[in-house]
């Protein structure tokens, strides 16, 4: 999959409430860690040192919620030629 939808939050506004608790992390760069479910290993998102937490859109109960709609595109200069951006 060449794209992913991240939804960013200030770390202070995120509370881990699921059965698995806080995600397991793997340090992926100097400034961020990838987050995974400690029970099944599914990707949850990224926990940055900023402190920002970026969660994958598919992790939400209702990923169609208008409050989760993208506001901008990152790295659009690297998108595949077949990708069509829909700007709102």
UniProtKB/TrEMBL annotation:
<comment type="similarity">
    <text>Belongs to the Gfa family.</text>
</comment>
<feature type="domain" description="CENP-V/GFA">
    <location>
        <begin position="9"/>
        <end position="76"/>
    </location>
</feature>
<dbReference type="Pfam" id="PF04828">
    <property type="entry name" value="GFA"/>
</dbReference>
<dbReference type="InterPro" id="IPR006913">
    <property type="entry name" value="CENP-V/GFA"/>
</dbReference>
<dbReference type="InterPro" id="IPR011057">
    <property type="entry name" value="Mss4-like_sf"/>
</dbReference>
<protein>
    <submittedName>
        <fullName>Gfa-like protein</fullName>
    </submittedName>
</protein>
<keyword id="KW-0862">Zinc</keyword>
<keyword id="KW-0479">Metal-binding</keyword>
């Amino acid at each position: 999959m060449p794209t992913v939808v991240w939804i960013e939050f200030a770390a202070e506004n995120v509370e881990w409430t699921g059965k698995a608790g806080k995600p397991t992390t793997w340090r992926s760069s100097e400034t961020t860690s990838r987050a995974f479910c400690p029970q099944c290993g599914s990707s949850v998102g990224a926990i940055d040192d900023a402190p920002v937490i970026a969660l994958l859109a598919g992790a939400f109960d209702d990923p169609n919620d208008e409050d989760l709609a993208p506001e901008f595109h990152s790295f659009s200069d690297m998108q595949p030629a077949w990708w069509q951006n829909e700007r709102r």
